[in-house]
UniProtKB/TrEMBL annotation:
The lineage of its organism: Eukaryota, Metazoa, Chordata, Craniata, Vertebrata. This is UTP20 protein. The gene is Utp20. Signal peptide: none annotated. Pfam families: UTP20_C. Residues 1-116 form the U3 small nucleolar RNA-associated protein 20 C-terminal domain. GO terms for cellular component: 90S preribosome; small-subunit processome.
């Protein structure tokens, strides 16, 4: 898709690409700023190359305006999601408690896996799944 966006932008030319610049930059910006563990470095490099291509094609001023608007929009979305999560904690404490328990459980499992990888002889105790007990509501 990134190669397609680059090809379309070159094909459209300097004047006709300007209205579509924020739309094209959105996925490129998302890929550049992502911090996933299994991130593909080739995608990051490709997005960087296409951004450089767009800079040369459109000019630094127009590119900067579009890029800053995309950046601002992404930050607003991030802030909105954070605010909604905080409001959900207040509005639905049972859902928030379940999420918190799940996060703590995953954290403990991750810690056990890490210990096992560092010390292969050590076997951490695993939580046995009791189907009825896990289904019980948390008070």
């Amino acid at each position: 898709i990134f190669k397609f966006l680059g090809a379309i932008s070159v094909d459209l030319g300097q004047d006709r690409i300007k209205p579509y610049l924020p739309t094209i930059l959105t996925p490129l910006y998302r890929e550049l700023n992502s911090n996933y563990a299994e991130q593909d470095p080739t995608l990051k490099n490709l997005s960087q190359e296409i951004i450089e291509l767009l800079k040369k094609l459109v000019g630094l001023e127009a590119f900067s305006l579009a890029f800053s608007s995309v950046q601002k929009q992404a930050n607003q979305k991030r802030a909105m999601r954070k605010k909604q999560r905080a409001l959900q904690t207040v509005a639905n404490p049972d859902i928030a408690a379940r999420r918190k328990l799940k996060r703590h459980k995953n954290k403990a499992e991750t810690r056990k896996r890490k210990i096992e990888s560092l010390r292969p002889m050590y076997k951490a105790k695993r939580h046995r799944s009791h189907a009825l007990k896990d289904l019980a509501m948390v008070e």
